[in-house]
């Protein structure tokens, strides 16, 4: 139990139950949290373990019944105005205190901005492994040397060229962050014997070195690429900020979000909050429209879960043409105005 030594906080013998972190973002549950809760329920049923939801924030008690209706047997809740926004040291300390007391076997966290910050900090404090950005979660069937019912965490590796399946056989909890939109959810079954466990919050118990000055709503609010069903994305081939306006117009017509390659961000024609790729956001839309994007490995690795890719590129030999489901060969300047016109005609 000693944090500074390498003694595990949760031993294999003690570990039990499957947990899902329920992330609240601007007063709403992040959709990926419901996906992982559903997955936790599925695993809890197989392992015959409880499914526990962890929720930290302000005005979050309203979600208790909802989480129980989705299968949570226990809801650990910490509700206080100080927790309205994600303050990493408070959230980590609260989460850690619950783990230390209740000793989970598995923890699933959405691979959102918050999840990608929270999970490695927890892993470090718990002396356990973390598999980030998982696209598939299963349990071992006992045919390997590690035995049955270990968490099998699958994620893209080497720039998306291979899928790696990773186990954490020696440490607990088994900790994974999960890409939004990739876990197929089954039917929710309400828990029959649910409990709510409240964590008492105080500033002295969970202090912070940080002071939240301002949440930059106007930047963050409009860019929600992770949950977008349609993304219109532009690369260096878009050429200018002015041309990017066509992508925004098309996105508006389709109810889509606008994304970008690093090439476009690097050229300063679009804000980096829209970058998709290995060093940007990872997305899984139903439709990805790539305009003037060559299709580098670093870009493609982040869109491999897109259901349909439509590429608009003037070069018929651009690498993206091999990945795309549909290719339109031509310049952005000629194709986009025509596409916008046709969609307007249909409306
Ligand atoms: C460690 C590392 C991390 C990286 N992370 C990322 C990342 O997160 N995201 C990312 O995107 N990249 C990333 N990159 C960069 C990546 O390797 C590519 O350089 C980048 O994706 C290229 O962007 P692009 O496709 O917009 O530009 P380019 O490769 O220059 O391609 C432009 C494309 O536009 C086409 N084109 C040109 N003019 C027109 C026109 N008028 N109409 C239609 N088509 C046109 C061209 O035929 C070409 O295919 C990373 C690289 C490294 C090394």
What is the count of β-strands?
Answer: 17
Our estimate of the beta-strand percent is 25-35%
> Count the helices. How many?
10
- Series of H and E elements: EEEHEHEHEHEEEEEEHEHEHEHEHEH
Tell me the Rg in angstroms: 22 Å
Secondary-structure-based class equals alpha/beta
Low-confidence stretches: none
Helix content range: 25-40%
Oligomer: single chain
Spatial gap, N to C terminus: 63 Å
CATH homologous superfamily annotation of the largest domain: HUPs
Coarse morphology: globular
Please list the strands of the largest sheet in the order they lie side by side: 7-11-6-1-4-5-12
Bound molecules: flavin-adenine dinucleotide
Number of domains: 2
Q: Overall pLDDT, averaged?
A: 93
How is the secondary structure organized here?
Elements: E1 16-22, E2 24-25, E3 28-29, H1 31-47, E4 51-57, H2 64-69, E5 74-79, H3 88-102, E6 104-110, H4 113-126, E7 130-134, E8 136-141, E9 148-157, E10 162-166, E11 174-178, E12 195-198, H5 217-220, E13 230-234, H6 241-254, E14 257-260, H7 262-266, E15 287-291, H8 297-300, E16 308-313, H9 320-323, E17 326-329, H10 332-346
Parallel strand pairs: 1-4, 1-6, 4-5, 5-12, 6-11, 7-11, 13-14, 13-15, 15-16, 16-17
Antiparallel strand pairs: 2-3, 8-9, 9-10
Helix pairs in contact: 3-4, 6-10
The chain binds flavin-adenine dinucleotide.
The site of flavin-adenine dinucleotide (FAD) has 26 residues, from helix 7, helix 8 and helix 10.
């Amino acid at each position: 139990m000693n944090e500074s030594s390498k003694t595990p906080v949760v031993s294999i013998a003690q570990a039990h139950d499957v947990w899902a972190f329920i992330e609240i973002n601007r007063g709403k549950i992040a959709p990926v949290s419901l996906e992982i809760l559903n997955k936790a329920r599925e695993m809890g049923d197989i392992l015959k373990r409880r499914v526990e939801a962890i929720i930290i924030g302000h005005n979050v008690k309203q979600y208790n019944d909802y989480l129980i209706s989705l299968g949570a047997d226990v809801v650990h809740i910490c509700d206080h105005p100080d927790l309205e926004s994600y303050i990493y040291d408070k959230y980590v300390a609260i989460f850690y205190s619950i783990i230390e007391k209740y000793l989970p076997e598995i923890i699933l966290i959405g691979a959102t901005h918050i999840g990608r910050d929270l999970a490695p900090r927890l892993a470090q404090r718990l002396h356990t492994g973390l598999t980030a950005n998982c696209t598939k979660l299963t349990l071992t069937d006992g045919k390997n040397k590690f035995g049955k019912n270990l968490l099998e965490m699958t994620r893209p590796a080497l720039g998306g060229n291979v899928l790696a399946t990773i186990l954490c056989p020696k440490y607990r909890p088994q900790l994974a962050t999960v890409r939004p939109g990739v876990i197929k959810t089954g039917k929710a079954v309400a828990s029959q014997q649910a409990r709510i466990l409240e964590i008492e919050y105080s500033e002295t118990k969970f202090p912070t070195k940080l002071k939240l000055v301002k949440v930059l709503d106007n930047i963050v609010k409009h860019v929600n690429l992770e949950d977008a069903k349609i993304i219109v994305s532009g690369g260096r081939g878009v050429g200018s900020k002015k041309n990017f306006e066509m992508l925004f117009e098309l996105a508006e017509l389709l109810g889509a979000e606008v994304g970008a390659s690093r090439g476009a961000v690097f050229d300063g024609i679009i804000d980096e909050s829209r970058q998709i790729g290995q060093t940007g956001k990872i997305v899984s839309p139903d439709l990805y429209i790539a305009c003037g994007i060559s299709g580098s490995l670093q870009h493609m690795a982040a869109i491999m879960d897109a259901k349909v890719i439509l590429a608009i590129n003037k070069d018929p030999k651009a690498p993206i043409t091999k990945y795309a489901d549909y290719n339109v060969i031509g310049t952005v300047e000629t194709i986009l105005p025509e596409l916008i016109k046709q969609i307007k005609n249909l409306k």
